[in-house]
Amino acid sequence: MALVFRVAMQFVGILLSLLGWVLSIITTYLPHWKNLNLDLNEMENWTVGLWQTCVTQEEVGMQCKDFDSFLALPAELRISRILMFLSNGLGFLGLLVSGFGLDCLRIGERQQDVKKRLLILGGILFWAAGVTALAPVSWVAHRTVQEFWDETIPEIVPRWEFGEALFIGWFAGFSLLLGGCLLNWAACGTQVPLASGHYAVAEMQTQCSHLENGTANPSV
Question: How many domains does the chain have?
């Protein structure tokens, strides 16, 4: 029963981490980190991302322009671009490393200790990816709140607000953190007895086959 729980936690951890990694990539390239609405002659909606700024008008539609220079960006956007790239890379490495540490991957009966270490390393990489995804979106959100309540700016001047990318980035970061926690819990929380090496490996492979068959042929 412990092996079934362990395999299930590994699958859930990998799925959460994969979801967080995909969402972090979407956050990196989505041009909706900050929004600005202007009620002029026609409705305008300005959005800013890490790579470009866009304006949406009712009659014209959306038009985007890439930033001309990396050095000309505000500090929070420059650092956010670097951190999001780092998060994407760490998440990809975490998927590769933890994938080889799954119990369902048959890499030899004598290598359970290696697979455990791979799972732990993968979980740590997912933690790092989650932190480096949460840091930039939280920093941009903090700067947006500061500018929104800045008393030196006249009230008539429109204020920037949170964009959809910030919420996606928060969800991505927490998914990566939770996925890493589950993988480390699966690696450290349940131990396979060393004295029953052949039996333990055979039982894990049988449980994995049952899970795969149950997914492929769901009962009616």
Answer: 1
CA–CA distance, 149 with 146 (Å, rounded to integer): 5
Region of 56 on the Ramachandran plot (φ > 0 left; ψ -120 to 50 alpha; else beta): beta
Q: Is residue 47 part of a domain?
A: no
* DSSP bridge pairs for 39: 43
Q: What are phi and psi of 146, to 5 degrees?
A: -60, -45
The pTM score is 0.80
Q: What is the mean pLDDT of residues 128-143?
A: 96
pLDDT of 156 > 70? The answer is yes
Query: Quick one: pLDDT at residue 206?
Result: 54
Domain range for 97:
2-33+74-215
Tell me whether residue 53 is in a domain. no
CATH number at residue 182: 1.20.140.150
Q: Is residue 66 part of a domain?
A: no
